[in-house]
Amino acid sequence: MKITNLIFTTVLLISFLLPINSCFAQSDSLEIHQINGKSYYVHIVDKGESLYFIHQKYNTPLEIIKAENPSVEDGLSVGEKIFIPVKKDLSTTSTIDGNYINHEVQKLQTLYSIANLYQVKQQEIIAANPEITDGLKEGQIIKIPISSLKNTNTEVAQPVKTEYKTHLIKQGETVYSLSKIYHTTVDSILLSNGGLPQGLKIGQSINIPIKIKVSESVVDHQKLPISINNIQPSGIVTNVAKKAEYTIGLLLPFYIDENAEMTQQRNVLEEKTIYPKSKFAIEFYKGFLLALDSISTDESKFKVYVYDTKGDDSTRIYNILLKPEFKKLDLIIGPLFYDNFNDVADFALQNHIPLVSPVKQSNKTLLGNEYVFKVVPSKSTSIKQICTLIVDSFKTENLLAIEYEKAKEKALVELYVKTYNNLLLIAKDTTLYSSIKTLKINYNIADVVSNLKRDKNNVIFVPATEQTFITNLFNFLSTTLNKREYQDYRVTLIGLEEWMKFENIDLDYFQQLNVHYCTERFVDYNDSITALFIKNYIKKTETYPSQNTFFGFDLAYFFGSNFINYGTLFSEASLGYYKGMSIQLNFMKTGVESGYENINSNMVRFNNYTLEKINH
Q1: Cα torsion 295, 296, 302, 304: sign
Q2: b/e map 241-262, b = 16+ CB within 10 Å
Q3: Among 44, 76, 462, 564, which residue is least crowded by beta carbons within 10 Å?
Q4: Which residues pair with 437 in a beta bridge?
């Protein structure tokens, strides 16, 4: 095996846990920060503040705030940083010409987003620009009718102009000490220098922001805020020297002691089994090691530290963070539990170590931490995958969306409709398309049947995971379709992966209702590469690989290859699209100083009683 070292380390329990503090301090929301050539206010969310309040305070459309801060779709948290584009820097893409504002279309802008920016109706923009029925193009100039603009009297925040002084780093200086010398904040220094992902080095020249008060508002009320380009990573590095050895820490629930006890108590005739709660970790670990072994070279190898986290044990995590080798890791995978992961995320931020979550986590784990990678997309992110399928395959069918009033996921209906409409606006295809009809449902499932159409495929989006409701919906629809008067009707249910855990729903229903759903992991066992992997794996281990094994292999192959090829995860060439055997990875930076979320997942459907991946 090419992996140079494999180290198991366990920790002793102690009776207390010290808090791990983030190195960032709060910044004045009226200070202007220059980030990637753009100007922003940094607003710190206070108790009781809403997104609408922030929109009113800065007189900035909600669509712009959401575009710059995708995580706000999951709600606001006290202390969260919201980046607000400064109007004077964004208005350069529009000019006033008589009765119109000439607007230059920016990358990825849609008719919907432009209409929201100027507070006008989409139809009014189309009437002034008949040619845009063929779609919008980056750099295109379109007219916005001034007579349609809505007047607002919202008070605009008074900015503080920021200039910069160059400082040469001396021995012993830290970002914190510099913030005290220059009477600024740690956050401001980091934002002015791309986050300083490599820390400070003696002789390094950095920018120090110096505040200068402005007596009059620099915001020109005749100019309107314009959407800006996608946020670019601030921690891009170049000319990284490759290392002879990369160290990776796995923080997973291996339950080493419990497995050892089971082995000791097993007699010769008993089948080999593992402690049930360690199943994910052990299967993941086998695939992980196999991938690292396959990509190691004579020039670059890997050392793997294996830390047994057991369950949701914060004390064990604290002790692991005290390990002397932990600060020197090149990559951390895990832990699985939310609170523990956040503690490790704080540590990773302070020590500039990439941290990967291999399981579902809230997008809030990405806020303010450019070193966190979230592999499993959120439900809101997966909505775009679903809508892409709808636009490609079902846009002329009878489109229904069920908003079940007791479902915690019911907000996804609004996002589904909005995303679908946006995709249609940027599509070049001018074919007549269907609108989505939303059905607000309690237990009156009969309302769904009354909206079915005989001559079309009835595509029904149901974002709900309450088992009783989903079971009743399946039963009612199946019973209806078995009636003579409905035998010609077609139904396609678009649902959630959680449905697969409902053992009380017969597989016949999934087949009859043509169920589709989005999943982050899917192994195509008919694929030739997958078949070859299975054959070699069985030959080498005398066991059959599980989905967790494929998953561990894919993650190790992706991140390990980036180290082998580029020496870092943060070069311009790093983090390209990856299609693995179980997962597709395409990471997007979620905010100016926030982490990365994988935005790719697999759409699957039932066909002949088996799941198959949909290529679209």
Answers
A1: positive
A2: eeeeebbbbbbbbbbbebbeeb
A3: 44
A4: 400
Q: Strand 457-461 to strand 490-495: parallel, antiparallel, or no bridges (unpaired)?
A: parallel
To which residue do tokens 């995971």 refer?
465
**Per-residue model confidence as pLDDT tens digits over 113-126:** 777 677 777 777 87
Pairing of strands 602-607, 596-598: unpaired
The C-alpha atoms of residue 149 and residue 166 are separated, in whole angstroms, by 44
Q: Is 400 helix (H, G, I), strand (E, B) or coil?
A: strand
Contact 575, 350 (CB under 8 A): no
Q: At what angle do helices 528-541 and 279-295 cross, to 10 degrees?
A: 100
Of 231, 236, 194, nearest to 107 (Cα)?
A: 231
Distance CA 192, CA 613 (A): 45
What's the first-to-final CA gap in the chain, in angstroms? 39
Identity (one letter) of the amino acid at 563? F
Note if the pTM is more than 0.70.
Answer: no
Structure tokens belonging to residue 497: 């992966």
Torsion of CA 63, 69, 73, 74, to 10 degrees: -160
Distance CA 192, CA 190 (A): 5
CA distance 290 to 276: 22
